[in-house]
From TrEMBL:
<dbReference type="InterPro" id="IPR027417">
    <property type="entry name" value="P-loop_NTPase"/>
</dbReference>
<dbReference type="InterPro" id="IPR029063">
    <property type="entry name" value="SAM-dependent_MTases_sf"/>
</dbReference>
<protein>
    <recommendedName>
        <fullName>Sulfotransferase family protein</fullName>
    </recommendedName>
</protein>
Length: 671
């Protein structure tokens, strides 16, 4: 008898072909994934296995006509997706040769195994959109369902779930012989086996995964005859043997197969709360260094950055910091001071200083991790290629924000990418074949220094809604897997091979900036006057947003006798939420008592109640607050201490109207 078994990858075809061959008895010829085009008429005693995605459906149908029995093996697409997630990485040499990729997957699997609900499937780099793996699973199952429908009656449809459960009576009747589920498999192919069970997806999917994947997989399930049941396991349970241990074994075996040295992957006991479990910009940089032989690396990063620098492996590394005095976050003051203590202040460079210091040095790769404010981002991105060697690569970080909330113009606590995505989209607009984005770590934009157009205007703007609607066109989005494939040849031209022409992109004139005022903190010692030399100034944006200002006393400051806080330099209305003095180690030293403001030393300021909230109204060009600080607090004030201010300045018109209303109210009360 000749028997053909067809199924998609990771659906149990290996186990079934050996079970059928043993049921046939004797010594049947076994064809294991041999290409159809190379096979002649099968011998009378043959069991053949063909992977559905490896051949054209019409060729499979024609080839099947040469067999006495034909079995089409199908599997729940959700379980199929999980199996591919664990196994598919082992089929590609390019992935086996990338430690960052393998380390990230191993760490995610360890976290997933320890606490299944804490890691969504989309966090795995194989499934981050655009996901070639997800597209393959969907396309294969859709074609498989269409094939089953087109050839109903000529093929026996066997479900993977019935096979692993030992429900093989119908199959045995179709073949005319008893098929047993415990077939002996050639040890060469034992590595493909994992759980040998069904329904594993219920432990791997989270509720967010169900919401995301259900619209994609429901039609495939219906076409393959699976019920619309998406209930999850309670509680979910994933064993090490079926997750990270399985993955480690595959990596070990496949790297040995490809002639690569052993790779030590992180172990679960090395995982900590700060352990990174995703592809990062350092992984992208290291891949470029390895594949293209880059030798000289420059990093231009925020003052609280630098973590990437330590993770980059390159012969020559240079680090410079972006001045960002107006954007300091209060909670990270201690970390900023530690950065300065470690690196000093000599590497804090403005753009002109950076260009002057490193002119003619010729870097192969530059990372620019900006302070996300335009037009500064545009201007720096246009200027940095001057420091690159011809053919070098500029990387701009944070070019693909995942949600609008982190794209605010004003710096906000936590994740924040500001308007960098706009600046990169504009650069790519003028250099479409020389710029694209690797879709990891909020988007790593790569720019090839190969005839760049850099004299374009930077005033153009776009909304997040425009960007999100045509994200792939604005960014040239590429998955990390695609990035690995395109860098495998070691030729930069292959990485920047011209993609299909992007859809027309829309930009418009940038809106006028919100009005700004200045906020100042003065200090003085005994027998001194307040002066501009002993003051810190920060801008405030009059757009109604909550703003956190952090005035940190510079080195050398000591013997402070008095403080003076000027909330604005003009007439303004604002909600003042808090004023706090913080020690260099983050301890609270003093807090303003908002409820007792009437008895405090406020000058050219009055307070009023609006809708139950207290507003501060400045009444002149030089409003001031002289806090009465306890002697114990004054004695501790010095370098590294800071005044943290949380306020919501109102737009000028709002301030003027509120001021007029307050004046009318005061007049009415006097009458």
């Amino acid at each position: 008898m000749r028997c053909l078994i067809v199924g998609a990858g990771k659906t149990g075809t290996t186990a079934l072909v050996y079970a059928v061959a043993q049921a046939m008895g004797g010594e049947p010829v076994i064809h294991f994934e041999d290409p159809i085009a190379g096979l002649q008429t099968p011998a009378p005693h043959t069991a053949a296995k063909v992977l559905f995605e490896d051949e054209r459906p019409d060729d499979i149908a024609a080839f099947g006509a040469k067999f006495d029995r034909r079995i089409l093996l199908v599997r729940d697409p959700r379980d199929n997706l999980i199996s591919h997630l664990l196994y598919a990485v082992a089929t590609h040499r390019v992935q086996m040769d990338d430690p960052g990729w393998l380390r990230t997957i191993a760490q995610l699997l360890q976290r997933k195994q320890k606490e299944p609900a804490s890691v969504d499937l989309q966090e795995f780099p194989q499934l981050r959109p655009p996901s070639a793996l997800l597209n393959l699973v969907c396309a294969t199952n859709q074609a498989l369902a269409a094939f089953a429908q087109a050839h109903a009656g000529n093929w026996f449809i066997l479900r993977y779930e019935d096979m692993v459960a030992g429900r093989l009576d119908a199959l045995s009747a179709y073949l005319g012989m008893t098929v047993r589920p415990d077939a002996k498999i050639d040890p060469t192919y034992q590595r493909v086996a994992r759980t040998k069970g069904a329904g594993d997806w219920r432990h791997w999917f989270t509720r967010d995964d169900v919401a995301h994947y259900r619209p994609l997989l429901d039609p495939l399930m219906a076409a393959l005859g699976y019920a619309d049941d998406w209930s999850l396991a309670t509680p979910p349970l994933i064993t090490p043997e079926h997750s990270w241990v399985y993955f480690e074994r595959l990596v070990r075996e496949r790297r040995q197969f490809f002639g690569m040295p052993p790779l030590a992957l992180p172990t679960p006991d090395q995982l900590g709360p700060e352990t990174r479990a995703r592809i990062g910009k350092a992984d992208v940089i290291n891949r470029l260094v390895r594949q293209f032989g880059f030798k000289r690396y420059l990093e231009y990063n925020k003052l609280d950055g630098g973590k990437c620098f330590s993770g980059v492996v390159c012969d020559s590394k240079t680090l410079a910091f972006i001045p960002e005095h107006a954007y300091l976050d209060g909670p990270v003051t201690e970390r900023l001071l530690q950065t300065v203590e470690k690196f000093g202040t000599g590497d804090i460079l403005t753009l002109p200083q950076l260009l002057e210091r490193h002119a003619g040095q010729g870097f192969d790769i530059i990372l620019y991790d900006p302070v996300h404010v335009r037009p500064e981002v545009d201007l720096v991105a246009r200027a940095l290629p001057a420091l690159l060697n011809p053919g070098g690569i500029l990387i701009v970080h944070d070019c693909n924000p995942e949600k609008e909330a982190i794209t605010s113009v004003q710096r906000c606590p936590g994740a924040w990418v500001g308007e960098t995505y706009k600046a990169f989209a504009l650069l790519r607009h003028y250099n479409p074949g020389l710029a694209f984005t690797v879709d990891e770590d909020f988007g790593c934009g790569l720019v090839w220094n190969n005839g760049l157009v850099l004299d374009y205007p930077v005033e153009a703007d776009l909304t997040y809604q425009q960007f999100d609607a045509q994200r792939a066109s604005y960014t040239g989005l590429m998955s990390y897997h695609q990035f690995l494939q395109k860098t495998a040849s070691g030729k930069i031209a292959d990485l920047f091979a011209a993609p299909a022409a992007p859809a027309p992109l829309r930009f418009q004139s940038a809106p006028p900036p919100a009005p700004r005022m200045a906020c100042q903190l003065f200090w003085r010692g005994p027998d001194e006057d307040f002066c501009e030399e002993l003051a810190l100034t920060l801008p405030i944006v009059l757009d109604g947003s909550v703003q956190v200002l952090h005035f940190t006393f510079p080195a050398g400051v000591a013997g402070i006798e008095r403080l003076r806080f000027d909330p604005a330099d003009g007439i303004l209305a604002l909600r003042l939420a808090s004023l706090e003095l913080i020690s260099p180690k983050g301890a609270l030293m003093w807090r303003w008592d908002a409820d007792a403001h009437a008895g405090q030393d406020w000058r050219a300021v009055r307070f009023c109640e609006v809708d139950g909230a207290t507003l501060l109204l400045t009444t002149g060009s030089d409003p001031q607050f002289h806090p009465a600080l306890p002697a114990s607090v004054r004695a501790r004030l010095g370098a590294g201490c800071s005044l943290s201010v949380v306020m919501t300045p109102q737009p000028p018109l709002v301030g003027a109207l509120l001021g007029a209303l307050e004046a009318s109210r005061q007049e009415a009360s006097h009458e």
